[in-house]
Amino acid sequence: MITLSAQPIDAPALLRAFENVVADAGAVVTFSGLVRPASTLGDVRTLHLQAYSPMTERGIEQAVSIAKTRWALSHVSVVHRIGDMKPGETIVFVATASKHRRAAFEAADYLMDYLKTEAVFWKKEVSSDAAIWIEPRTEDYKDAARWREGEAS
C-alpha cells in the first residue's frame, strides 16, 4: 500500500491494520517520522510538504519494487503526509513484513533513505522568523549511497 495523505496519519491504527494482513510474517518493522519542534531556524511552527502526483507515487512504487526484489518481503506499506503539519505530527509511516527480522529492518531503512533523498517532495519549514525550503542533508545522501554500493557488489 502506498498512500499520500493530506489527513493526519494515525500510526498505531496503521500498524494494527498492517499486522492483520501479515499472518505469514515472522517480523514486522515500522518507522514513523515526526515533525521536529525545532530546526536551525528556531522553533518550527509548520512544515509544509508538496508532492508531484502521480510522479511521487510512481517513484515510491519503484522503490518498493526494488525492496521486494532485494529482500524477501511479504508486505510493505508507505503512507506519507502532504500539506501543512505541526510539530509532533507524523510525516511518514513505513512498515515492512518478512519471515525474518533482518530483511524487514533493511528494507524499511532502504525505503526511508529513498523517501529522504529521492522521492519527489518539496518541504518548507516555517518558523516565527522565516520560511525556508528544506533539502536533504549530506548525511542523508551518504546513508542512501550505501544501498547503491550494495547493488554494485
Tell me what you see in this structure.
The chain is of the alpha+beta class and 153 residues long. The chain has a single domain (2-147), classed as Alpha-Beta Complex (Aldehyde Oxidoreductase, domain 3), CATH 3.90.1170.40. It contains four helices and nine strands, in the order βαβββαβββαββα. The strands form two sheets. Strands 3, 4, 6, 8 and 9 form a five-stranded antiparallel β-sheet that branches. A four-stranded mixed β-sheet has the order 1-5-7-2, with helices on both faces. A hairpin with a 2-residue loop joins strand 3 (38-39) and strand 4. The longest helix is centred in the C-terminal third of the chain and has 17 residues, at 101-117. 25% of the residues are buried.
> How big a fraction of the residues is strand?
35-45%
Do you know the CATH topology? Aldehyde Oxidoreductase, domain 3
How many distinct beta strands? 9
CATH fourth-tier homologous superfamily: Molybdopterin biosynthesis MoaE subunit
Order of helices and strands: EHEEEHEEEHEEH
Tell me the count of domains: 1
Structural class comes to: alpha+beta
The main pleated sheet reads as: 5 strands, antiparallel
Please work out how many helical segments DSSP would assign: 4
The average pLDDT value, as a whole number, equals 92
Oligomerization category of the chains in this entry: single chain
Shape, please?
A: globular
Helix content: 25-40%
* CATH top level assignment: Alpha Beta
Could you name the ranges where pLDDT drops below 50 across 5 or more consecutive residues? Answer: none
Report the span from N to C terminus: 30 Å
Radius of gyration: 16 Å
Named at the architecture level, the CATH assignment is Alpha-Beta Complex
